[in-house]
Amino acid sequence: MAMWIWHFGDFEMYHNLRLHMRRDEFDHQFPPFWRLDDCYHNVVFRKEVTTAEDGHVRVNARYQGMLEIDGKRYRLSDSWGDAVTYPLPAGRHVIEAKVMCEDLPCFYMDGVVETDGTWDACTYGGPWLKAGCSPMYSDPEANPAEFPFVREPLVPVSAEEADGGLLYDFGRECFGEINVRAVKDSVKVRFGESREEALSDEAILQKHEAGFTDRVSVSFSPCAFRYVWVGPALPVEAEEQLLDVTSRGSFRCSDERLNRIWDVSLRTFSLCSREFFLDGIKRDRWVWSGDAYQSYLINRYCFADSAIDCRTMLALRGRDPMTTHINTILDYSFYWVMSLQDYYMSTGDADFIRNVWPSAVSLMDYCLARRDGNGFAANEGNGWIFIDWAEMDKDTCVCAEQMLFMRALEAMQALAAIVGADAGRYAALFNDLREKVDAFFWDDEKGAYIDSYASGKRNVTRHANIFALLFGYTVGEKRERILRGVLLNDAVTAIRTPYFKFYELDALCDAGRTEEVTRRMLAYWGSMVDGGATSIWEEYSPDEPMEAQYGMYGDRFGKSLCHAWGASPIYLLGRWYLGVKPVKPGYRAFEVRPQLGGLEWLEGTVPVGNGEVHICLRDGKCTVTATVSGGTLCWQGREYPLEAGVPVIV
Amino acid sequence: MAMWIWHFGDFEMYHNLRLHMRRDEFDHQFPPFWRLDDCYHNVVFRKEVTTAEDGHVRVNARYQGMLEIDGKRYRLSDSWGDAVTYPLPAGRHVIEAKVMCEDLPCFYMDGVVETDGTWDACTYGGPWLKAGCSPMYSDPEANPAEFPFVREPLVPVSAEEADGGLLYDFGRECFGEINVRAVKDSVKVRFGESREEALSDEAILQKHEAGFTDRVSVSFSPCAFRYVWVGPALPVEAEEQLLDVTSRGSFRCSDERLNRIWDVSLRTFSLCSREFFLDGIKRDRWVWSGDAYQSYLINRYCFADSAIDCRTMLALRGRDPMTTHINTILDYSFYWVMSLQDYYMSTGDADFIRNVWPSAVSLMDYCLARRDGNGFAANEGNGWIFIDWAEMDKDTCVCAEQMLFMRALEAMQALAAIVGADAGRYAALFNDLREKVDAFFWDDEKGAYIDSYASGKRNVTRHANIFALLFGYTVGEKRERILRGVLLNDAVTAIRTPYFKFYELDALCDAGRTEEVTRRMLAYWGSMVDGGATSIWEEYSPDEPMEAQYGMYGDRFGKSLCHAWGASPIYLLGRWYLGVKPVKPGYRAFEVRPQLGGLEWLEGTVPVGNGEVHICLRDGKCTVTATVSGGTLCWQGREYPLEAGVPVIV
């Protein structure tokens, strides 16, 4: 199948730049505070090919350039209507297309030779890499500079008179465009994720006023809303714009609240999955590496769409030279490296790893160059040490950050092995760091890792300890002390963000505490959906009334009520309850180790490579069917191989 | 004066990319074969300022962004019609404008605080640099994304019927746009630098056919021509588009042919001076570092427009990482470094040097990393070893290239001293290289430097020997042997390009042979202008009929007949005959050492910093008047200080 092709990574740079231009709030644009790279604008595409029969090729480019067939130069048209056809006799040919434009340079050929991922592309001086392409752009009239969202009409479930206008309720969190017809001089529109926000006469993020001079209607840039207030009272048309992807995973169980949590999580995750994984759809609508890291893992258990993983990783990394950490956050650089290893495990896509390996090395070099005298990733010169929106002693050097540093060094070892590079350097760095972390941060009296040693406060929060468990950096009795003394200890300040709940519950599951996790999911996410949330919030406290929690970052309605990092139940239920994980890259081997976690019954589907595995635990029986081979069911201490299409009932 | 501001270097990246998209020939675009960088698209501008009185600022941005005054955020309008005015009380303020767009991000403020080169700009993570700006963009409605060429109507001097159409002769080489009114169905247009080219029915570079469907007229992209053939016979409108600059230098002498050479050289140079210094206006219309190096030196003696120097150097360098040499040519990387030192000498602009110093270091690191085992800049892995369009033994390692390498290392020493960096490293490298060049390339029997030692051919061309003289790498008797045995020896193949004639005649002047240089200028350039050339050609042989010399690069009319490197008589006559050179950076001190070079009389003007110096040699008398102080007249072994406005007559 012929597809539009571009220079590897350039589609992502192009759309990433443009996506990050779209954040506007309080009537001003809000650009990100990090460098954003654009695509290259001068690219050569190349293929050596032997054709069996005389034939023709049709060529097209966006937008200008030159075609060379066997050294002879031809015109490249810039619109499909003008597409030129050239004869290509049977035999060996070298075809080069040199495309240059201010926009995203890309190229299309069909006929006896077709453009696809087997072509090479370079930017003159950079390495030759396999061209980027996507089945989204297989139509010769498609335009890779435009992202093909699915557009569906949105109909409000109710409208009521309010504040001299109409308040529309679309029934659930949406992302779309509102269009108002010009029957009056001008119109005011307020978008709210909550009813209160749409009705507020205070400053809210999305409040617009537009005149109708010479226009029959006004469209407002796509944004997040459940409620839309329009004054004066005018009819609106609304259109949702979503990524063209559906869930291959599913989950149902005996607890209807948990089912509702899974559904709302999926809606949340679907809304935040666009060109790239976004943090949230109201704000920032940016791509953040820490948020994305969780999205990659959630993605495994629903869409299993590796294309959005790739797009997001490439967009986040940008180009060399590194001048700040990814998103300016030290942790987020580490997550980026970790995500490569997870991606490889999900897909077995070594080509992608090879293409980005030089970027991983230079990113890690950037991190290594900024270590302190002890070899730690310290505060000084390292940008923003985020970890979580939580009180933490961040004096000089933060333990949770070192945990991520170690995990990233482990990932570098694994990646080096994939691409055939020297892994020893990273192994040595890891071993050294691991010893030092225990020496500096482990408090044997408290039975926990402390936040930081510099201040002398020896403060304990959950974060570093969660990572220590999750990444397997503690064993035996020490592990048990952390579990009981920190994770299961109510005296240690609770995690408030779904972001860190992800890791906490993941660690608890890993420690076999799924029943506790069920309770916590129901208490936290359950409380949110009971309260009427149609998407999961950026931050939440079950102890306060929901309507008292809309504020964040100093703004009365600043909190995002639809945040991707809230969708972790999809991951937790798929990973630990349905119990599926890849054992070999690309699910060539996978494990199914289901457990009820205190539920009466559960069933669901998890994507495994090109197939799916369906699991049902009910009435003391475990039934597992995979559409592909390679799986192993682990049930009550025994292992059962899974053959494609053959149910195993035990 | 308020001016639009942009991130340092970004205006140049932006226009350089777009300029290089414009080469089209034989009905296809012809993109350069090196990486081209674009401007950044996410920029912050900043100024801390204390205002004396309450007032207002008016702000505008291209095209989107956010204004922060003392931490409070405001809207940035994207059109001057919507410009917003904000109050600014007396006192200390921090003003930041965060501008992001797909285009060139820039910002304008007037009122009690104005945007200009005192503002800082950065791209988040990159260093804070003084903002770029230009008096070309002081109007609040100006758009730095458009280059403000001066547009003048062009009127043909004749039209004759030919080939079923009309052949217009514009009387001299032009660069402009042709517009044809739609009185027929379609029109064919052929552009020729020569009459033969415009009348050719063979493939020529600029031959277009356009239909008039739904159009009242057709415009053809600006290109080079003296002759334009239009068929069928239709009236045309033509408009010249030139850089808004005039010559501050002048030259007249007793030889009318030399006066004509100076005039035609100036016309040539004016046509090739646009956003940047181009090689030629028919082809490539690209920015080449070797060509530009000569343009910087020619510029000193006519426009003395340092702005175009800066623009060209920034455009050529592009961004890190270096992945190829500048224009893919090793020599051209060295010329780039050399040009910085010359620029500093012309202007004394240390700020510019400081801003580009990191780029100079990384460029030189790139060169140093590619040395061979002997420490030479060798062929292997070094891209294109150009030197000149001449037969030369380029086996492995070329002597002329090492001469440029040495000269670039000397320039790095000088630049390091300007910015306060360590010059010693470059001094050591220079000394080492100089010894090795003499050991490997000097042939004492031939009394000359050989092209290359690897082949064993021990071939001698003029190039390395010219550089050895010009850069002062030989002294005493050795110098004299090179002069007589190579430069004044007709048995050594003559230089054919004006490009290398520049260096040859410069070296001869330096050796006191101006009378020989006069003869050679008259023989070479004189022959061209006698033959009717209205601009200087890319390459020329006085021994062949002009109409037999239109071809180059395998194309019948491939040669550029208007090539900047042909304009060197402006440099030679200003530098050696009028005899002016800077002695201290920015002409704070300058030398005037006029000589007749065999002419009866001469007079002229040379720009010296903010002033000019006028020199007249006539009737055995030397009269020199400078509008600024700092000069020294050197005449017949004596020195005379020059005071502003006071003629010295000796």
Helix and strand topology:
The structure is a homodimer of 650-residue chains.
Chain A: E1 5-6, H1 10-20, E2 24-25, E3 28-29, E4 42-51, E5 55-62, E6 65-69, E7 72-75, E8 84-88, E9 91-100, E10 106-111, E11 120-122, E12 129-130, E13 132-133, E14 150-154, E15 158-162, E16 165-181, E17 186-192, H2 195-199, E18 207-211, E19 217-231, E20 236-242, E21 250-253, H3 256-272, H4 289-300, H5 306-317, H6 330-347, H7 350-368, H8 399-419, H9 424-441, E22 442-443, E23 448-449, H10 462-470, H11 476-487, H12 498-510, H13 514-530, H14 568-577, E24 580-582, E25 590-592, E26 602-608, E27 611-618, E28 621-626, E29 631-635, E30 638-642, E31 648-649
Parallel strand pairs in A: 25-29
Antiparallel strand pairs in A: 1-13, 2-3, 4-9, 4-11, 5-8, 5-10, 6-7, 6-9, 11-12, 14-20, 15-16, 16-19, 16-20, 17-18, 17-19, 21-26, 22-23, 24-25, 26-27, 27-28, 28-31, 29-30
Helix pairs in contact in A: 1-5, 3-13, 3-14, 4-5, 4-6, 4-14, 5-6, 6-7, 6-8, 7-8, 8-9, 8-10, 10-11, 10-12, 12-13, 12-14
